């Protein structure tokens, strides 16, 4: 299974990569899905990583379809569901090919809220939700989301920076 992670996060030697040999980038994960041997990752986690590979490759339609297909899985573990919804939400917020800004933001917020229903302690989902609210001018909602992000996880520099930007933009005449 480590080979799949190497494929996902890259190697230095191009000749060692399956795609250099004409194989798909997610080849190792595809093999892991059909392998009947015991694996440290569940089938759902492997499917998530395949979808995430599509996203990393900027194959956004394929990623969206793979994430949405994964959400149809019966008895999907809560953490996989939360992370899948989080990725869908963030993709809708950041990827232009997924529609016009208003529609994308609406979907992004819906996906992130569903992610937080599955895992209310995800600081990353709260942060992403704050970014979405900030981008549509919902300053109070953005601030609340950023605050939740700080409360749920160790606050990152990104969260504090986003709070600073939010305060600056909501009070443009003060320094």
UniProtKB/TrEMBL annotation:
Keywords: Nucleus. One of its GO terms (biological process) is heart development. GO terms for molecular function: chromatin DNA binding; histone H3K27me2/H3K27me3 demethylase activity; RNA polymerase II cis-regulatory region sequence-specific DNA binding. GO terms for cellular component: MLL3/4 complex. Its main location: nucleus. It catalyses: N(6),N(6),N(6)-trimethyl-L-lysyl(27)-[histone H3] + 2 2-oxoglutarate + 2 O2 = N(6)-methyl-L-lysyl(27)-[histone H3] + 2 formaldehyde + 2 succinate + 2 CO2. It holds the Pfam family TPR_17. Its EC number is 1.14.11.68. Gene3D superfamilies: Tetratricopeptide repeat domain. It is found in: Nucleus. PANTHER family: LYSINE-SPECIFIC DEMETHYLASE, LYSINE-SPECIFIC DEMETHYLASE 6A. Belongs to the UTX family. This is [histone H3]-trimethyl-L-lysine(27) demethylase.
